[in-house]
């Protein structure tokens, strides 16, 4: 399932940056794809697309550095929603 989440997240980023050839483990901050507006769009996209809420303690740069880290964040939040 994380692969599907990663594909969805990667498609969102590439949709905003069509010139990007992005792998799941590339640091999108160092590639220059992120500014403050896009960071907020990314948080809102993840919350809406996957039906998760992202509390302040999850809004750390390392959770958003790569497509893989964002997919893992989604998995953790979904797992937490099931067990809660």
Automatic annotation (TrEMBL):
Transmembrane segments: none
Domain of life per record: Bacteria
Signal peptide segment: none
Domain Carrier: 1-78
Pfam families documented for this protein: PP-binding (PF00550)
InterPro entries in alphabetical order: ACP-like_sf, PP-bd_ACP
Coiled-coil residues: none
Full protein name: Acyl carrier protein
């Amino acid at each position: 399932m994380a692969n599907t989440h990663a594909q969805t997240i990667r498609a969102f980023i590439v949709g905003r940056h069509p010139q990007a050839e992005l792998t799941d483990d590339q640091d999108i901050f160092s590639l220059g794809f992120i500014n403050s507006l896009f960071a907020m769009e990314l948080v809102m996209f993840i919350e809406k697309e996957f039906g998760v809420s992202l509390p302040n303690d999850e809004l750390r740069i390392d959770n958003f550095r790569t497509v893989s880290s964002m997919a893992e964040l989604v998995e953790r939040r979904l797992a937490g929603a099931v067990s809660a």
